[in-house]
Amino acid sequence: MDTINQWHLSAAGFAALACAALLVGFSKTAVSGANTVSLAIFAAVLPARASTGVLLPVLIAGDVLAVLTYRRHAHWPTLWRLFPAVAAGVVAGTLFLLWADDAVMRTSIGVILLLMAAVTVWRRRAAGREDEPDTVTTRSGRLKARSYGVLGGFTTMVANAGGPVMSMYLLSAGFRKLGFLGTSAFFFLVVNVSKVPFSAGLGLIDGRSLVLDAVLAVFVVPGALLGKWAVHRIDQRLFERLVIAATVVGGLQLLLA
Length: 257
Prior knowledge:
Blueprint: H1 2-6, H2 11-29, H3 36-45, H4 48-70, H5 76-97, H6 102-126, H7 139-159, H8 162-172, H9 177-201, H10 207-231, H11 236-256
Helix pairs in contact: 2-3, 2-4, 2-10, 3-4, 3-11, 4-9, 4-10, 5-7, 5-9, 6-7, 6-8, 6-11, 7-8, 8-11
């Protein structure tokens, strides 16, 4: 109750945050990118800027559970290609946060997400699916990894919205379901933990936000367990459609907010 009072949350507002935290757990172990809905809920219930700081530790809790679940399926060559570009994107996002207001942030990220969803759909219709995610070893594959990496780092730093960007990259690279989830699990655990000092330095994470995070993290666990149960009952084609749909919904929410 003290936590709710500190943030001046109504019962309905807290329930919405709890549902968003549950969805974070589900997205991390089932449909990556679906947590853009959580992002929108947090921004609607809490002050937009503060919401990014509160959401980050909740995402990290989901990342830990996802790594524990899918650690054997990660594709490390892809991760090593992405990390340097993501670091550059995080730095760019930090600088962007120093001057951009909420409206500019939402519009920029929303447009990026919708464009990436459109490009991914077009590419997958124009070319056959690859059996292994080996496009990262080619020159064009390396360029694509760097481009998505910078955009992913930028969007995840600005609004914790890097999930859809990486989802579009992993789908376009031909990842199957478990490889997709295992690779994204390690990717976001490393990236989100690395964002903590930047977010704390910007005043987005403090003692008050961490108290709320401790309460909300409880709801991440059942969401992750539900996702683990559901992912084995979703076929590959449906999985890909759900990921793309979640990206489109997230982009539209940011543009219309």
